[in-house]
TrEMBL record:
Protein name, UniProt field: Transporter substrate-binding domain-containing protein
Ranges for domain Solute-binding protein family 3/N-terminal: 25-249
SMART domains hit by this protein: PBPb
Recorded family membership: Belongs to the bacterial solute-binding protein 3 family.
Keywords: Plasmid, Signal
Annotated signal sequence range: 1-20
UniProt cross-references to InterPro entries, sorted A to Z: Solute-binding_3/MltF_N
Length: 250
């Protein structure tokens, strides 16, 4: 009898220990969306990977990263098989199964122009773009100030990466894209530093959030995680992490 009781106590301790470890681990659903998340090699990289790692550490959680295509990531969150995700826009259907941690950690999109050095004068006004075609990613959305101006000629290609490579090889005049994405691609592929960013910026307001599944075992941590995000935002840590990640290599 004593032996059975001892065995039962040991089993309960093991189960409790495993549960305790699970309680302090967040499963992060990670799509491939550089520079925010890059899952081509492990350990995964990206601005969001660094932000979520710092957030988990400050809040006292370990992090388990789960690679998934974006639609599958959302399904995993809905089912509670993943706990947390980044860069999520608010949509009515998503609010059914997601806690949006506040504040939003991204509040605007800036779109910038890159040109080949020496090809143009400094571009400060939209009117200076009227004389040349601007290469864009087909199907991408841009601020109305750019997309609805019929005086701007656009030249679509299938991917922004192709546009940057064409610009490097002087087979495109100018490329427009979301600032973080273009900075990342230029930093990675413009090894001879032949491109330059123009001062003209088109901006669009957004609110992108870090989210927690409502079926997560850690749903009670919403306030704690939100408070931690607010502290990271107020201190400038998140903005600094964004900029540091994209700083050109010396």
């Amino acid at each position: 009898m004593k032996r059975l009781l001892f065995t039962a106590l040991i089993a309960m301790q093991l189960i409790h220990g495993a549960a305790a470890n699970t309680e302090k681990t967040l499963t992060y659903a990670v799509p491939h969306w550089p520079p925010w998340t890059d899952t081509q090699t492990y350990p995964y990289q990206g601005i969001d990977v660094e932000i979520i790692t710092a957030l988990a550490d400050k809040a006292g959680f370990k992090l388990n990263m789960l690679k998934c295509a974006w639609k599958r990531c959302l399904r995993l969150l809905e089912q509670g098989e993943a706990d947390i995700a980044t860069n999520v826009l608010k949509k009515e259907d998503r609010e059914v199964y997601l806690h949006y941690l506040t504040p939003a950690y991204r509040t605007n999109l800036d779109y910038v122009i890159y040109t080949h050095k020496g090809d143009m004068h400094t571009v400060r006004t939209k009117q200076q773009l009227y004389s040349l075609p601007i290469t864009i990613e087909r199907g991408a959305h841009f601020p109305d100030e750019f997309s609805q101006d019929k005086n701007i000629q656009t030249r679509p290609v299938s991917q922004t990466l192709f546009a940057i490579k064409q610009l490097i090889n002087q087979r495109a005049n100018a490329v427009i894209g979301e600032e973080y994405q273009l900075d990342y691609l230029v930093n990675r592929f413009d090894t001879n530093h032949v491109l330059e960013k123009q001062p003209l910026i088109f901006s669009k307001t957004i609110n992108a959030y870090i989210v927690l599944s409502k079926k997560s075992h850690h749903a009670e941590a919403v306030a704690q995680l939100s408070d931690t995000i607010a502290q990271m935002m107020d201190s400038g840590q998140i903005e600094s992490m964004k900029r540091d990640y994209l700083r050109p290599n010396e």
